[in-house]
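Journal club prep — side note

Before the paper discussion, L.F. wants everyone to see what a predicted structure for a comparable chain looks like in token form. Sequence:
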Amino acid sequence: MTQDNATTVRRFTEEVITQGNIDSAAQFVWEDVVEEVPFPGQGPGLEGLKDVLRALRAAFPDLIFSVQEQIAEGDKVASRFEWTGTHQGTFLGVPATGRFVRVWGIVIDRLEEGRIRTTRIIMDTPGLMIQLGALAPPSA
């Protein structure tokens, strides 16, 4: 079951996020999924998640989300990820810059009956904002 959970998370990231098949998210995620650390303005459940993913793909249409490593134990899967993309639309209030970004993070998913029940994403949002020029890099 543990390996199946890791495979489910990888398939979700590939098919839904990278390939942009957002409407197929329901086969991987429960309707009432709980995002423990929601994006600003993210609504509840699967629809809120789909809205965030649509906004991300609209802002970064060439987005590639890749799992770098995973640890699966019991009903939980921790994935260290990296995503890349070119900023071609407004995201988190920042208008398109045309800049290529590389963002790291970790997501911890808890699965139930083969689908994601809760998720917690920890992403380098300050690093993203620095790459977009919306935040000044720290001085040395």
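L.F.'s comment for the group: The mean pLDDT is 95. Keep this in mind when we get to the figures.
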